[in-house]
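Thread: Newbie trying to understand structure tokens

Hi all, I'm a second-year student working on a class project, and my supervisor (Dr. K.) asked me to get a predicted structure for one chain before our next meeting. I've only ever worked with sequences, so writing a 3D structure as a token string is new to me. If someone could post the tokens and maybe explain what I'm looking at, I'd be very grateful. Here's the chain:
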Amino acid sequence: MSEYDQKRLALLHINKIIQLMQETLGEIQRLAIALELETGKNKK
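---
Reply by user tm_fold:
Sure, no problem. This is what the structure looks like when written as tokens:
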């Protein structure tokens, strides 16, 4: 495998990791919003 191919493969892996991190952040945000809504209900 050429150096170019290795760098290209590394970039693809990095992009996949970033995508997974963004999905995880989205999930955390949904959970945080749900938690806020639950907490708000309990305060009333």
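A couple of things are worth pointing out once you decode it. Residues 3-43 form the longest helix (41 residues). The mean pLDDT is 95. Feel free to ask follow-ups in this thread.
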